[in-house]
What we know:
Elements: H1 2-6, H2 16-29, H3 41-58, E1 76-77, E2 87-91, E3 95-98, E4 101-105, E5 116-117, E6 124-125, H4 126-145, E7 155-160, H5 166-178, E8 183-186, E9 189-190
Parallel strand pairs: 1-9, 2-7, 7-8
Antiparallel strand pairs: 2-3, 3-4, 5-6
Amino acid sequence: xxxxxxxxxxxLPEDYEQAMLTKRKAAKKGDRSEPAAKLTMNSLMDILxxxxxxxxxxxxxxxxxxxxxxxxxxxxGMTALTPEQTVAVTVSKSAILVDNAMVLTxxxxxxxxxxxxxxxxxxxxxxxxxxxxxxxxKQRRIAAVNPSAGxxxxxxxxxxxxxxxxxxxxxxxxxxxxxxxxxxxxxxxSNIEAGA
Length: 196
């Protein structure tokens, strides 16, 4: 009997059975009052990794990309060289673009006289010079951080329609020369046959 006196019992509240029954019903219904799950650092790293892989898969590694259109029919050539990463000046039948950004329109193989210094007889195309000067500045900033990118400084790749008038080509090259481009490369479609 001495052993019975040393035992202690926990006193349960009167509504204990009712509280337990309510918890069981709530658990069956899926109504849990637990806090929502938080994003952990591992989850965020997984998301960033997936984004990085997606961006790398979609990033173009071509030095020059040309979008086919009825305004731009590239001339054929006998070259096996691969294009380098340079500033691309596209001269189509209806527009002049610098790195795929519209600079000005072309009508009947000519640039409007109001867009040139010296009017109709001038060779200096004002909007084109501004766009090319901005591209040179961008190349300089990149070369300051990455010296290997500086080797293409002063080189422009001209992508032009095969029927571009010589006068317009001369104006584009003169304007590019005024914007510190001293070397030009022309993009053509390779016409080398297999086995020849």
